[in-house]
Amino acid sequence: MTEGAPDSLIPYDEIVQDALRAVVGRVLDQVEKEGLPGNHHFYITFKTQAAGVDIPQHLIERYPDEMTIVIQNRYWDLHVSASGFEVGLSFNQVGSKLSIPFAAITAFHDPAVDFALHFSAQVDDQQPEEIAEAENDPVVRPAEDGSNVVSVDFTRKK
Fold first, then answer.
1. What are 107-139's pLDDT values in tens digits?
2. Distance of alpha carbon 114 from alpha carbon 143, whole angstroms
3. Which residues pair with 91 in a beta bridge?
4. Number of domains in the chain
5. pTM, whole model, 2 decimals?
6. Could you write out the DSSP letters of every residue in the chain?
7. What's 38's domain CATH number?
């Protein structure tokens, strides 16, 4: 007899991840329609090589694994769909259009209210390269005390 819970035939991990990513979509959709309210702003981290990500080649070269962008003062043309979002941002004073599927997002943080979501990432067998900070604004990491932070890790113990 094996110890622990049996493997589920229902993909709960994926369902919860999709639901939490839908929170990001709903927030961005509201911002698309009404603009950023108050002091709200977002740090969004995503896998640059994930399926469906469309960013300029120079950003892929600089951030070959993961990148954090900031949606705050200098963004334009935010468009949200059911599967992801597009936004214009400036990097070294050069405008760029980014298209990011929600499935590529690994973290979302709104420092104005200390709200953060962290998502499990599909990791290949290779080790990722060191990640440089976003060029369009300095990154502020979520508080370590866990206040208003939702972290989801679905690593199964076997």
1. 999 999 999 999 986 544 444 455 555 556 544
2. 7
3. 94
4. 1
5. 0.73
6. ---SPPPPSS-HHHHHHHHHHHHHHHHHHHHHHH---TT--EEEEEETTSTT-B--HHHHHH-SSEEEEEESSSEEEEEE-SSEEEEEEEETTEEEEEEEEGGGEEEEEETTTTEEEE------SSPPPPPPPPSSS---PPPTT-TTEEE---PPP-
7. 2.30.30.220
Residue 23 lies in a domain: yes
Residue 96 CA to chain centroid, in angstroms?
Answer: 18
Domain coverage including residue 51: 12-121
Q: What is the pLDDT of residues 52-72, one digit of tens each?
A: 999 999 999 999 999 999 999
